[in-house]
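Q: I'm teaching a short session on how sequence maps to structure, and I want students to see two examples side by side rather than one. Could you give me a first protein with its sequence written out and its structure tokens following it? Keep the formatting plain so it prints cleanly on a handout.
A: Of course. Example one:
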Amino acid sequence: MARRGILSGLGLALVAMGVQAGDPLLDQRALLLDDSRLPREATLDRLQQVRFAFREPQAEAGEQPLWARAQASNGSWDGGLRRDDEGLILGLDRPLGGQWMGGALAAVSHARQDGDGGHADSRSGHLGLYAATRVYNQLGFKLGAIHGWHDLQHGGRARTTQLFGESAFALDFRDFTLEPFAGLALVRLDASAQRHGGLRLRGADEEAGYLSLGWRLAAPWYWQQRKWVGRASLALRQDLGSDRLAGQAHTDSGESLRLRGREFERSSLRLDLSLDHELRGDLYLGLTYAGHYAEDGRDNALAARLSLKF
């Protein structure tokens, strides 16, 4: 995963004193920024499955499409940092008129991290809105906004706010569709002050941007009179970076320390593989694997999705 020049970089170099790197509170803030992608990617995946190539049938008059997604991810980075995360997302969407559709989601998650500097947990909740449209049946747009609340170990709280969008152009063939796509996400983190290990870390306001460029493939087939859809995508994710921000901490004796964060690889590859199955006309089941690969870290996620019209 790419993360460069943020106050909460993974590991510390304390300029004023020889304090060792790896404070778990700074690790936690860095991961909150990067893990903002988890509900965002789930939202984009949902929009892809119901609005674009080989999509699920639209809801009939009086039907309400409800979807649920359970996911778990595991990440590890150079320097001994590890993170596990589990989450559940519930969403409801419907046609908005013309080529537009939109919906809302709610999510909860629990993340645990371990590193040389110690252990830290976080529990998060998210609320979001999303929409998508198609132009001339080939050019598509997805939009979304998600706000998250995070209860952090050691008495801290944080909020994340993100805006994101994606555009794609469908190249339709008889048995499959290819889509080049580009996505942009802007994320802001507001974290409160926290105390750990004799240090009081001041609150932080962080901003980050992520650009994704890639290709997506979708192909359907039928077995036992039921539809299956396989999807795959490969994308380059570029961290647009942020200014290196100096942070302040205070010891119990009142001494002030100046902190700076560690730099990370700004580019990573993302691979997605998914399979959707039509159990019946109003019930779909999907399985998804997502992997992020960077020089300094790896992250793997598995998700199961259920969508129902009632």
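Q: Perfect. Now a second example for contrast.
A: Example two:
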Amino acid sequence: MSAPERLPAALARRIALAAQGFADPRPGSGAGVRQLRRLVERLAVVQIDSVNVLSRAHYLPAFSRLGDYPRAALDDLTARRHVVFEYWAHEASFLPVRLHPFLRWRMAAAEQHAWGNIVQLQRERPGYVAEVLDRVRAAGPLKASDLDEPRPDRPGAMWNWHAGKVALEWLFFTGAITATHRTTAFEKVYDLTERVLPAAVLETPTPEPAEAVRELVRTAARALGVATERDLRDYFRLRPEAARLAIAELSDAGELQPVEVPGWGAPAWLDPQARRPRWIRARALLSPFDSLIWERPRVARIFDFHYRIEIYTPAAKRVHGYYVLPFLLGDEIVGRVDLKADRKDGVLRVQAAHAEEGVDRAVVAAELRDELRLMADWLQLDDVVVADRGDLAPDCLRAGLTPA
């Protein structure tokens, strides 16, 4: 076997950005269903999160790559056309429907990974899950709030689900039901999977688990461009043993190329079809749940950028803010901003702005100003206002943004 190709770290960074869609020019307001569908196919996993201080997380990756697109077009893919479906992949995620057969092994193995509250429910109320499934079958689309179940008294618990929600989520995990859409309040609406997904998807034979894992690793490799083993298995949260076997088989078949990236400290694999751009001219605000940055060790390795989300950190202990978005300029992350969409006052609030060490703050502030104004327009907000917090805030104000 020949020695792995040695990829310069800067080239590996550009390959990773191109694979994630940052090498292409933005279509801006011309983006519609076709561009969104292509982007979801490219990313394969679009993470969902309920925090709405700025925007629901699944809308943001498309804005970062496409610019001022209509959010209703993404709703069209997920809630009406059903060419995208919801399931547990990286976390709760939207995925192209072609991947449904390749996740059925996870649905079939659900009993091996039962959570404590479903085990307790099945012990205390045997037959209840089947009753809920029968109700969905008979009555059609159903929300957890449609079930007359008392909510448990566990203040502050993140997963404070009543018995009906536990049963519905368990049936969702096993694949018996799926999400038809989410309400404006972000509540999931469930129905039988065969009444939601396209017939062609449902009729696709279920592959063996090893074949399915190979396809998931193959898909992750295309979405990442160049990646370590950890990167590849983290994309779909695969078990190490199964992922390693799949990587070895894909490497032997020539579908993954072993490479060495200085400074990465781990073997890496390259998608042989990955683009190798000479430059990246991106400008983007990145959601904390964006697939480019959701694995923090990979972010540190590729961008030398150390990032953590501080939502669950007490306010007095936060360093950069509550909902902080890294700012990508060219092929580097040059700053971070704590953002809030103040819908009542009609403004995008920059609650803090910080620059990375060594950047030209005036240049960064000017580019950030334009990106923030674009985001405000996309969110249908009238202005961008900047609080005096963070070392980049004065530069943002000098660039012409409004003081808070």
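Q: What should students look for in example two?
A: Point them to this: Residues 361-378 form the longest helix (18 residues). Also worth mentioning: The chain has a mean pLDDT of 95.
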